[in-house]
Design a protein that fits this description.
It comes from Allochromatium humboldtianum. The protein has about 850 residues and is an alpha+beta fold. It contains 28 helices and 32 strands. The structure holds arginine and zinc ion. Zinc ion binds next to α3.
Length: about 850
């Protein structure tokens, strides 16, 4: 049953105070809740009944104002508790029993190893107690946790600890009080035998905050990077957004069973341990980066999400889009802005653009859903961040800061909408963003067609720009978007020329200029140009659109060498790689131009540039990304072309690649700095080209690196290349790695995923054998993702094998997991959703597998929604 935004009604009742008392036990936990309810003056009166959400709860008793109700006075069903006739203001008490040890869905209260922990967003709180489990009901919580002292010495919840007691029978209790009203999805508790890493932070206004990161005892040596990241994020949010932390303690707990990345529960973040734990020898540079940005993301939620929350789940991007924007800006400010932008756009193009072009396309603010868990999407998160970024660009930095100040001031303590956010942007800037709002309402990726024309006699250059957005499910006709288009013009010497619009009395300062598109078509004429400029379009990727331009390959090589915009240097190179790869896919004998190879060599040897940026410039687009650029995806052709071009570059640039490898070799201890990460990235890219070209010296270097490396970045780079090649040496290396890292769960995930991604002909057989490995567990989402998702999302050529065995394998896993963990099962299905993009044989096979899912009775709403929409 879909839920619609248009049906939103304010809650009939509000809850001011919540007192919870947990008697914790994995087999049977007793939860006593005392809720202070009152009629909402702002709501219309309903039928007199009060419905509370509740699922998988065993109700033992219910009382109103101290009077125990008889069964005739209430009704319980699978979705909740209905109270017939209630006063306008009353105290409700309920007593329920739950079973965390049997909760495999990892929503609500569940067991992870020896810990008990919670995940309540979006609708997990209703698996803990009866409640108005919706984000516009904000209450103050007091929580008492009671548990066995030896099994659960640490008892945590939101806010500050206010009381502790030792109880008879070996139990103890801790009471927590959270002074800030919050929606139920931000509730959390954790109980277990945890070690803690402690530090402190003094806020801008001089308050002391205790910082604690809780980990299982054997991980105590892997929390330092997370702690450093947290302090960096706290300082940055004060400086960039004027936001200070508001409680006396900030706690983070790392758990090994977690469906998503992490969760911003007030004062008590619960994290997938993958985004907390790192030591140079166990985690790669990408892992270190991931930790820094997820720690920052959850911290930033304290203002964008917690202090100001969402009115309803259609507004999810209000907190997620804005918070992703904030974490992206943080990473850009503490590292390289161009590299961060490149990585974010790479993700957007690889995941969000296909989502926007497929059967699950939805607006940043969706207008209906069946299962909200399916809407934690790249559209809501990443396109949502782009929509905030465009508003920041339209307003300019100072005005945008005034607008966010206004937002924080006006809406602190409230549950609001994306509309309220845009109104603050308008209020602070005086701009009319009526048309801009379409970014929240219309799905689909706009396409820009841009042509340039130079008039030598007039010294003028004209760009004509058309926008058009393809239809998406339920939205056949699109209105034009308000698009900020940042451009530059390059002269023959490679430098920026003034972007001087005809009619303006004087040229503007050199550099980038923001044009605004609002109509289906525009013409912009630039003046004062004594030569034909090369346009640098959509600098910094100023809008989430696809650009079709009329630049020549020579223009792109020029931009790749000279553009002052680092992002566009990369983007020019990407387009060159992409066009060549697609040409090779269609025709094996397509020539690989000399000037292309020369451009790659120039980039490779440009020692003045940021190494990380060069590594990005020289990385070919992935097969998965390229497949989105084909009308009918040619899986095998793309794979062959990719290998062909990689090998060609490896052979032609051999000596330079070897020189770059040696010049960037690791000396001394591991350092986590943008500079050192860039060196490792470029060195390992050089190694990859050499290995894939079958170079003997490359192979020797690869073995030597695997032997000698003392950091996981270099180990994994070498292991991945060996695993790709296969053979006895690869198997020996994999075995040795497994022995070395037995018991280190996050490292074992790497061992699984490196095998799942290797495009060897026997990849599926290996993956199926690994399902039976004693270290495999379908109960651990990280392990499932490492093996199953890596195979189906990364190993495109083997997953899409022509016999359909990959599809059958995936659907078996989905059906197995659906009764266990529906959220995870629904996510696994993603690679099958774009089935219409393949050739007719593969379409038939993929559709049959989707139908096999739909034929199963008792599907979860998560899986049902994905499959039914995919087939629609
Ligand atoms: N709010 C979390 C974040 O930081 C994501 C939690 C989503 N959980 C879920 N069950 N859908 O992005
Ligand atoms: Zn988030």
């Amino acid at each position: 049953h879909p839920i619609h935004l248009k049906d939103y009604r304010p809650p009939e009742f509000l809850i001011d105070r919540v007192e919870l008392r947990f008697e914790l036990d994995p087999e049977c936990t007793r939860v006593e809740a005392r809720l202070a309810l009152r009629r909402n003056p702002a709501a219309t009166r309903g039928d007199g009944h009060l419905r509370l959400h509740g699922e998988h709860l065993k109700l033992t008793q219910v009382a109103i104002d101290g009077h125990v109700l008889t069964p005739a006075e209430y009704r319980v069903d699978g979705e909740g508790l209905t109270l017939h006739r209630v006063p306008d203001r009353f105290t409700l008490e309920t007593w329920v029993e739950i079973h965390p040890g049997l909760n495999t869905a990892l929503e609500g209260l569940y067991q992870s190893g020896d810990l008990l922990c919670t995940q309540c967003e979006a609708e997990g709180f209703r698996r803990i107690t009866y409640f108005l489990d919706r984000p516009d009901v904000m209450a103050r919580y007091t929580t008492t946790l009671i548990a066995d002292r030896t099994r659960f010495p640490v008892l945590l919840s939101n806010g500050n600890p206010v009381a502790r007691a030792e109880l008879p029978d070996g139990r103890h209790s801790v009471t927590w009080e959270d002074p800030f009203p919050k929606p139920s999805y931000l509730f959390a508790l954790v109980a277990g035998d945890l070690s803690v890493i402690e530090d402190g932070f003094v806020t801008a206004s001089g308050r002391n905050v205790k910082l604690q990161i809780f980990v299982e005892p054997h991980n105590l040596d892997k929390g330092a990077h997370a702690m450093r990241s947290l302090k960096k994020a706290m300082r940055w949010d004060e400086e960039r957004f004027g936001r200070e932390y508001d409680l006396d303690i900030y706690m983070i707990v790392a758990v090994s069973h977690f469906n998503m990345g992490a969760m911003e529960n007030k004062g008590l973040n619960v994290f997938n341990d993958k985004f907390v734990l790192a030591r140079p020898d166990t985690a790669t540079d990408a892992d270190f980066d991931g930790i820094e940005s997820v720690i920052a993301h959850e911290y930033f939620h304290n203002w964008t999400g917690n202090r100001i929350t969402c009115r309803d789940w259609f507004q999810l991007s209000l907190k997620e889009g804005f918070t992703v924007y904030r974490d992206q800006e943080f990473t850009s400010d503490v590292g390289s802005r161009a590299v961060k932008r490149i990585r974010d756009v790479r993700t957007l193009r690889a995941h969000q653009f296909p989502e926007d072009a497929g059967p699950l396309a939805h607006p940043v603010r969706p207008d209906s859903y069946i299962e909200i868990n399916n809407f934690y999407t790249t559209t809501v998160y990443d396109k949502g961040a782009e929509v905030v970024r465009m508003q920041a660009a339209l307003l300019g930095p100072e005005t945008f800061r005034r607008a966010t100040d206004l937002y924080f001031e006006r809406h602190d303590g409230q549950a609001v909408t994306t509309e309220d956010f845009v109104r603050c942007m308008e209020g602070a800037s005086g701009r009319d963003l009526t048309q801009f709002r379409r970014w929240y309402e219309q799905a689909g990726t706009p396409e820009l067609h841009i042509r340039g024309e130079y008039d030598a006699t007039a010294g003028a250059y004209t760009l004509s720009v058309c926008q058009q957005t393809p239809a998406t499910p339920g939205q056949p006709i699109k209105q034009p978007f308000h698009i900020p288009l940042a451009i530059g013009l390059l002269g023959a010497d490679g430098r920026d020329l003034p972007v001087w619009l005809a009619g303006e009395s004087a040229p503007p300062a050199l550099g980038t200029r923001l044009l605004e598109l609002t109509e289906p078509e525009h013409r912009f004429t630039f003046t004062g140009l004594s030569e034909r400029p090369v346009p640098s379009l959509l600098r910094g990727f100023s809008a989430p659109v696809r650009v079709h331009d009329d630049l020549s390959d020579a223009d792109r090589m020029f931009l790749m060498a000279h553009d002052s915009d680092g992002f566009n240097r990369w983007d020019a190179a990407q387009t060159l790689h992409e066009r060549l790869l697609l040409a090779l896919t269609n025709d094996v004998a397509h020539p690989i131009p000399e000037d292309y190879i020369a451009a790659c060599r120039r980039a490779l040897c440009d020692m003045s540039a940021d190494r990380a940026l060069l590594a990005e410039v020289l990385s070919l687009p992935s097969e998965t990304y390229l497949s989105d650029r084909m009308t009918v995806i040619d899986v095998d052709g793309l794979h062959r072309a990719h290998r062909q071009l990689t090998q060609h570059i490896g052979e032609r640039l051999r000596d330079d690649l070897l020189a770059v490898y040696h010049a960037n070799a690791e000396t001394g201890d591991y350092v986590f700095s943008p500079e050192a990460i860039g060196r490792r990235a470029l060195k390992n890219l050089a190694l990859a080209y050499l290995m894939r070209a079958g170079d003997e010296e490359g192979l020797a270097l690869c073995h030597a690196q695997l032997e000698a490396a003392h950091n996981m970045t270099d180990v994994m780079a070498a292991l991945r290349l060996l695993a790709e090649q296969g053979g006895a040496e690869a198997d020996a290396a994999l075995d040795a790695f497994h022995r070395r890292w037995a018991g280190e769960s996050l490292v074992l995930d790497k061992w699984f995923s490196v095998q799942a991604s290797a495009p060897r002909p026997d990849a599926l057989e290996r993956v199926m054998a690994l399902l039976k490995h004693p270290d495999y567990s379908a109960r651990n989402p990280n392990r499932v993702r490492a093996l199953v998702s890596t195979f189906s999302n990364v190993n495109q050529v083997r997953f899409h094998a022509a016999d359909g065995a990959g599809y059958h394998f995936l659907v078996d896993r989905v059906l197995e997991l659906d009764p266990v963990n529906p959220l995870l099962a629904a996510r696994l299905l993603k690679p099958l959703v774009r089935w219409r993009r393949f050739d007719s044989e593969r379409q038939t096979l993929m559709r049959a597998e989707l139908e096999r899912v739909l034929g199963r009775s008792e599907l979860s709403s998560d899986v049902f929604e994905v499959v039914s929409k995919a087939l629609a």
